[in-house]
Amino acid sequence: MKPDAAILETAQCLCLASRRASRAITREFDRALRAHGLRATQFTLLAALHLAGSAPIGELAELMGVDRTTLTRNLAVAEASGWVRVHADPDDARSRRAAITAKGRRALTSALPAWRATQQTLTASIGAQTATSLRLLAGGPSAMTIPHPRPRKETRR
Length: 157
What we know:
This protein has 157 residues and is mainly alpha-helical. It has helices spanning 5-8, 14-33, 40-52, 57-64, 68-80, 102-126, 128-137, and strands spanning 55-56, 84-89, 92-100.
């Protein structure tokens, strides 16, 4: 039986191609970060917390472009490793905040050269314009929104 020509074009599916590319890129970062005891997802979480400071979990999920349940699972693993601290928000009892710990900052700093080398290798492999297009497709000039720290509310005692 000969394939339907209309269906044959699905072999060029951008969704499938992007998912396969994502897995390949993640494998490269995981391989490079393994020596530092981190996975790519953990490195990204630590970087986001370093940039954001202490952040409500909902805002952190939005910053990283992940759903809250995925972030909550990743935070639990990072907290068990001592890289982050999750605590009640003093301004909103219904909310929890996450913050990077000193141990998390050390892990992030230690792994940064391996991340940077992998970033440069992959960018060279796909080309700077493709890397820029990928970030734009992800939502902007950066893959992750760079947070602007907000002043904390004063609490009365």
